[in-house]
Amino acid sequence: MSSIDEVLQSDFRLREFRPHQREIIEDVLGGHDVVCVMPTGAGKSLCFQLPAVVLRGLTVVMSPLISLMADQVAQLKSLNIPAAFLNGSQNAEEQRNVLDKLERGARGLLYIAPERLSAPSFQRLVPRLKPRLLVVDEAHCVSFWGHDFRPEYMRIAELREQLGSPVTMALTATATPQVRQDIVAMLKLRAPKMHVTGFDRPNLTYSCHAISSEVEKDAMLTRFLSRQSGSGIVYCSTRKAVEQLEALLEKQFPKRKVCGYHAGMPQGARQKNQQQFMDAADSIAVATNAFGMGINKPGIRFVLHYNLPGSVEAYYQEAGRAGRDGDPAQCVLYHGMRDLMTHKFFIRNIGDNNEALSDAEIVRLQGLAQRKLDLMYQYATRQRCRRRQILDYFGEATAVKGCTCDVCAGGGQPASDKNFVAPWMKHEASGRKQQPALSTRSPERKRRRDRPVRNNSEPDEKPLDSGAQVRFDQLRQVRLQLAKEQSVPAFCILPNKALREIARLAPQSNAELAAIKGMGAIKIEKFGAALLAAFPSPGHALRENQRETAPPRQTIPRAREARVYASPPPSTRPVEDEVVLDHNAAARFERLKAARTELATKNNWPPYFVLNDSALLEVAAAAPTSIAALAEVKGVGVHKASKWGSALLDALART
Question: Which among 99, 118, 328, 330 is most buried, taking Cβ atoms within 10 Å?
Answer without folding.
Answer: 330
